[in-house]
Amino acid sequence: MTSDYPTEVLPVPPFAAQPGGGDWWTDAVVYQIYPRSFSDLGGDGIGDLAGIVDKLGYLELLGVDAIWLSPVMRSPMADHGYDVSDPRDIDPTFGTLADFDALIAEAHDRDIRVTMDLVPNHTSDQHAWFSAALGAGPGSPERARYHFLPGRGETGELPPNNWTSVFGGPAWSRVREADGELGEWYLHLFAPEQPDLNWDNPEVMADLETTMRFWLDRGVDGFRIDVAHGMAKAPGLPDMTEPAVVLKHTDDDPRFNNEAVHEIHRRIRAVMDQYPGTANVGEVWVDANDQFAKYVRPDELHLGFNFRLATVDFESTAIRDAIEESLAAVSAVGATPTWTLSNHDVEREASRYAPPVPATDNDDDALRAEENALGIGIARARAMALVELALPGTVFLYNGAELGLPNVELPDEALVDPVWERSGRTQRGRDGCRVPLPWEGEEPPFGFSTNPDTWLPMPADWDRFTVEKQLEDIYSTLSLYRQAIELRYDRPEFSGPRVDWYGAPDGCLAFRRPGGAICALNATQTPVPLPHGEILLVSLPLVDGMLAPNSAAWLV
To answer: Which Gene3D superfamilies match (predicted)?
Structure first.
């Protein structure tokens, strides 16, 4: 069979090795745990730390290097942990500090590192600082820790500027002062229960440093920094010139990506450098390569979350462009690239890649069409898993991606994400990608909990996705992930800090790592010839010796 893949390669600029080399986080597979949805050992229908400890054997079997915990600090849960009332304690929903210490110890015994969320942009409105600010009144040092301002208009009845919340609605709420009168307004770029901190106040940085050391001293291996492109606001808080979209913003949005944020990250890095072997990764939602690169300069973040693969369609040119842009963004400053297909804020890839379902009035036809579309979506997600795990750098897997879980279309009454109410019920929010994981059994809650009343309802047909069922099937998505992660580490061909592109048939792509590993993706609807080489792994069976539609292969 003649291959359509020419042997001439087209190089992409490599990223430079980290000083000293060998840092675990430069080629790690990190597994994101959304604690509410991972495993519930307490029986209240909400995942907890004891449940995570109980499943560490599974994570060891999967082969991941580290876990990242979404917030487990004390919180009223207005945004499910991203509204922190005490950053140096564990919320009782998840357990105790002793449970957290046990998780660290047992994970380390299995050679699994533990990283956790930091939420530095804002606090909970039930944080001691915010309570003090409300009681202290205008002009006080307590209010100077936040953004409190008088309103505009004759009686201050209008917000200080026209900023809107990322979750929808205004970004300002007015408080009632001690005399009972309406007074100043405070800024919250997310929910009203999440007042933004004023990072011009030195107390704010000092407190974060104390928090970081509290957890690093307990053995935490690093942090994921929430809204890492936030914190610093445009001087003078000028009005927005363009209307904002819920859950989206641009690089020149005055609410985010202001130059002063980089000094904050240098201060954070200075603390991390006192704890060798630890690393942080920032949630950096910026588009321009030169802007992204600033966050991963040698004295700022170790890693920056790159969301390009989590936002592009299943189309070969778009995927290749996303990879090239991602590598180019970090190569300029010698940083490590990162890759992810989903997280707790993004629609799951199996659903995102599914083709549109044609409209029909026949219920049976509609159900078959939906199943067919989901099958295609899962096939494409499997293919993209091989693309992602073949790339140089650090890979982040969102819990459940390894099971091929789709997004869930929940009923209105089950939605709890603040985006739903804040957007006037026009945006359904992120609950669909946060449904608890199915572990075993034939009906909900599938071993996630002993309580069938889970915090988000689980689909009745998820028995096909359970860990138990997939571990018994060598062709399952879980088995594919296990094989791919093992090969990524065991085969020397997956080495080298760059990718070299092959020419490929229309609608396909192929690249080679310097060590010799080749990844080929067929994003078309017909089988195509494979590149020359010995096959290591395929995401779907070959068709007459050719790469199947919506599939990928590894070769050497």
So the answer is: Glycosidases, Oligo-1,6-glucosidase, Domain 2
